[in-house]
Amino acid sequence: MDARIQRRLRACIGAMMLAPAGVAFGAMEDALLSAEPVGAAARGYYAEPAYDLVSHYQGSQLRLGYKLSPDWSLEAGYWRRQVNQGDDAAGINSLLASTSFGLIAMPDAGRKLTLRLSAWANYTGGLKSGAMPGNKLTDYRIAHPNDTQLQADLVYTGRPWPGQVLTGFIGGGFHLNAADAGIDAGSRFNDGSAFVGAGGSWRWGLGAWSLTAGYHVQYFFREPDSRYMAYGSARTPLNQTVLLQASYAVNRHVDVFVRGQGAHNSLMGYVPMLYNPITATRLDRTYGLFSIGLRISGF
Predict the structure, then answer these.
(1) What is the DSSP track for the chain?
(2) Which of 58, 62, 128, 268, by CA, is between 20 and 30 Å from 41?
């Protein structure tokens, strides 16, 4: 294929799929990990719907959690996002399931160490571009892109001072990407890699208000297919995310929150299926995302 057409193709597909800069969560809220995912009571539940927006992207998410006992907790999540760029559109779905087990708990000192195991995935029926001026390629499609991740984290939470909570975590896992690229008939791209991550958060509360600042860094061990390099895909092994959230407790069961977050290398690690021969060239860009939501809990 002519190099000029390749460059135009990468630009068009990249603009359509990644210009929204913040189109998914997967494990993106890891910066908010806590050793008490669903409250301090022996049993309880929570539900957290939220709305995400930035530029050409609108999305919604729902998280559900249930505490089976003082040690065991379950969590599930679903995200639906719609990306629109000109005449092009793509809908991306994400699923999350996790369980947490308390390894060490010191309630009097406000400390707890938890092991969290999670599985999460992103998928869509296809990512498509429209017509590109200057050439005859009018419909380029990556069919059925998807990714699957398994992850384990050790999470420590402590209360060093009244009204303040500090959390630190370290973890790792592996993922598998799959996609059919329509530029060459029958082309299929599969790759897998391992990753490690670490981070933490600080939460400060005053009355009904609370403020949380979080940080998450990921490193990826991958050997990309040589075909990726043929399209000019860069090898981006690291991503960093910062997060800031403010919440207000309407009553003991309802909280409202606003959340802003930004990443150094786009969605690298959060939506691994976007690491494909065409869109990987766009994953070295920063982005931001804003969310508003509601948290309902009962204990």
Answers:
(1) --HHHHHHHHHHHHHHHHTTS----TTGGGGG--S-TT-SSSSEEEEEEEEEEETTEEEEEEEEEEE-SSSEEEEEEEEEEEEEETTEEEEEEEEEEEEEEEEEEEGGGTEEEEEEEEEEEEE-SEEEE---TTSS---EEEEEEEEEEEEEEEEEEEEEETTEEEEEEEEEEEEEEEEEETTSTTEEEEEEEEEEEEEEEEEEEETTEEEEEEEEEEEEE----HHHHHTT-----EEEEEEEEEEEESSSSEEEEEEEEEETTTTTTTSGGG-STTGGGGTTS-EEEEEEEEEEEE-
(2) 62
User: Rounded to an integer, what distance in angstroms lies between the CA atom of residue 72 and that of residue 7?
Assistant: 51
* Cα 264 to Cα 266: distance, rounded to the nearest angstrom: 6
The CATH class for the domain spanning 3-298 reads: mainly beta
Distances 63 to 38, 74, 75, 265 between C-alpha atoms, Å: 11, 11, 7, 25
Domain boundaries, the chain: 3-298
pTM above 0.85, yes or no: no
Give φ, ψ of 253 to 5 degrees: -115, -15
Over its length of 299 residues, how does the chain's per-residue pLDDT go in tens digits? 444 444 443 433 333 333 332 223 345 578 888 876 544 454 577 788 888 776 666 778 888 999 888 888 999 999 887 766 555 566 788 899 999 999 988 877 678 899 999 998 988 877 665 444 444 444 556 777 888 999 999 999 998 888 899 999 999 999 887 765 554 444 556 677 899 999 999 999 999 999 999 999 999 887 655 555 655 555 668 889 999 999 999 998 899 999 998 888 777 777 777 776 666 666 667 777 788 999 888 75
Match 């779905």 to its residue by tokens. Answer: 93
Residues counted in the chain: 299
